Amino acid sequence: MAKVNLIIKETLDITCMRHDTFKLDMDWTDADDNAIDLTAYTFKAQVRKKSTGSTVLLTFNDADFTKDSSGNLLMKKGASDMTLKGGTYTYDVQATHTSTSEVSTWLGGLFIVKDDVTE
C-alpha cells in the first residue's frame, strides 16, 4: 500500500513569560537549503487551550510578523498582549501564498506560558 504525507508542519514547542514581549526569530529554507522569499506570503497564528478547542486565546495576524526575501521571519507581540495565564496551550502558524492562495501550516506545537512575578 502506498502512502503520502502532505504535512509540512515543523513541531516547535515554545515557552514564554506572561506580560513579557514575545519575539520568535526564525529562518526558513527549502529542501535544498535555499532561503524562502517570505514576502510572497501572509502569516497568521492562533493559540488555543486545546487544538480542538473553539476559543482562540491569542491571535497573531500578518501585521505581527516581519518577513523578508532572505527567509527571515519574526513573530512578535507586545507585553500588553501577552496576558494568557500560566499554563500549557497549543498553537500553529499558517502561511498563505499571496499569488496562489495556497494555505499550509508551517509550524506548531505547545505554547507554554510561565507566570511572572512582576506585572
Alpha-carbon distance between the two ends: 56 Å
Under CATH at level 1, the class stands as: Mainly Beta
Relative strand content? over 45%
> Would you identify the CATH architecture?
Sandwich
- The tally of helices reads 0
Tally the structural domains. Answer: 1
Uncertain runs: none
The average pLDDT value, as a whole number, equals 93
The helix-strand sequence is EEEEEEEEE
- The assigned structural class equals mainly beta
Helix proportion of residues, in percent? under 10%
Query: Main beta sheet, described?
Result: 6 strands, mixed
The dominant shape is globular
Evaluate the radius of gyration.
15 Å
Counting DSSP E segments of at least 2 residues, the number of strands comes to 9
Fourth-level CATH superfamily: Immunoglobulins
CATH topology: Immunoglobulin-like
Describe this structure in a few short sentences.
This protein has strands spanning 10-11, 14-17, 22-27, 41-48, 56-60, 65-67, 72-77, 87-97, 103-114. With 119 residues, it is mostly beta strands.
Structural commentary:
The chain is built from no helices and nine strands. It has strands at residues 10-11, 14-17, 22-27, 41-48, 56-60, 65-67, 72-77, 87-97, 103-114. It has 119 residues and is mainly β. It has one domain (10-114): Immunoglobulins (Immunoglobulin-like, Sandwich), CATH 2.60.40.10. Strands 1, 2, 4, 5, 8 and 9 form a six-stranded mixed beta sheet that branches. The protein has a three-stranded antiparallel beta sheet with strand order 3-7-6, with no helix packed on it.
